Amino acid sequence: MCGIFGIYGHKDAARLTYLGLYALQHRGEESAGIVVSSEKKIMSHKGMGLVGDVFDEKSIKSLRGDVAIGHVRYSTTGSSISKNIQPFSVNHSKGHIAIAHNGNLTNAFKLRHDMEGRGSIFQTTMDSETIVHLLAKSQSPDHRQNLVDALSGLEGAYSLVLMLNGYLAGARDPGGWRPLCIGKLDDAYVLASETCALDLINAEYIREVEPGEIVFISKKGIESQKPFSGKKHSFCIFEYIYFARPDSNIFGQNVYLTRKRLGKQLAKEFPAKGDFVMPVPDSGNYAALGFSEESGIPYEAALIRNHYVGRTFIQPSQFIRDFRVRVKLNPIKDVLRNKRTVIIEDSIVRGTTSRVRVKTLREAGAKEVHMRVSCPPLRFPCFYGIDFPTKKELIASNHSIKWIKDFIGLDSLEYLSKEGMLKSMPIPKEEFCTACFDGNYPAKPCGRMSKCILEKK
Ligand code: AMP
Prior knowledge:
Elements lengths: L1 E7 L4 H11 L7 E7 L4 E7 L2 H4 L2 H6 L4 E7 L14 E5 L2 E8 L5 H10 L10 H10 L5 H9 L7 E6 L2 E6 L8 E5 L2 E5 L2 H6 L3 E5 L5 E5 L2 E5 L9 E2 H7 L5 E2 L2 E2 H15 L6 E4 L5 H11 L7 E3 L17 H4 L2 E3 L1 H4 L3 E6 L6 H12 L4 E6 L21 H4 L2 H8 L3 E4 L2 H7 L7 E2 L1 H4 L9 H9 L1
Parallel strand pairs: 14-23, 17-20, 20-21, 21-22
Antiparallel strand pairs: 1-4, 1-10, 2-3, 2-4, 5-6, 6-7, 7-8, 8-12, 9-10, 9-11, 12-13, 15-16, 18-19
The structure holds adenosine monophosphate.
């Protein structure tokens, strides 16, 4: 997963991009980067780590220009190394090109293999670099046509922001897997993965970049082309379940309200007898609220999150059992002691974190622990940009719900039905990709990826 941001026509472009990336930090914590363009040149600053660690006042001030794009990365293809930090930029006879990509191309391996066979030299291991090669190959003298030509060769998921010789462009694949919206700040235009980035800089939400649409932003304003629209949509349902920020609107609709509806539906399908309902913070917070409202069972926050835990910390010198999990979430013994708790989780991936969490609830005195999950069992890997492990590592692909219940150490475990999940969504069910739940992959991966699928299936 990744977060992308772009702005055109603002003298503080780099600073606003920094703030936009800050709001999108949840979409990728591995690396961050900004590329700016002024009339004559482009400048960039990138680094491994969180936005707040990569940038400081000096680096932001050094990025002068009124067009900028930025990226936060959580790698799903290409390893987590510094040469893979985006935005990826090149100097070419066509001008400066910079790109920030969210999604996975399912034919990247084949494209790259073909291009390398014809002499192309790749600088990174990212699928996103193939787009830059395709742009450079286009024979048209027109930048806009170059982009149309490049994207016409792609399959799979891409939401993109690009800088093309000082213009800003945005594009979404015809399925529209990953979100991308357009905003306006005074006379400047903004593109962002989620609306929470617009909110932070006080930009007004205009609309979504539509699936299959390309927007070109210049002094003339927004120019739209829809060379690839009209195909069946495949919005990622997992963005609503887990990935996007609850205060964002994605695909035109709010995430928080959707998560609450998932919780209400879960309570209807699988009522539980408990003294209170509690979430696994923060991902289960809003489904738990919905569950509590629907069931009438009171809500308690019996696990408290330490908000200051970074990705690394100095380990305790002596062995402390389950330290890594407990440093993040601590149970409140006085709330849990002798109580029957209904704990709401947004999803179970490997089941290993849940197992440790349930153990800490029992150690804190909980008498019964019932888990309700606000999506169906995750059984299939994702090839469109969510980091789901191989089928082997997805606990629900190899085991029954009863087995998982025992493994995690629960008194009962129930998952929301697929129908219930789709019913809770704010847009029609036909518009979603649900491949991680049912294995119906809208775009068949080719090349090495299809081998992966065969191995994983
Ligand atoms: P586990 O019990 O180990 O399966 O962990 C479940 C937790 O992982 C849930 O709280 C989810 O919010 C979270 N989660 C969901 N999807 C992902 C993902 N793609 N990568 C990492 N964590 C995830």
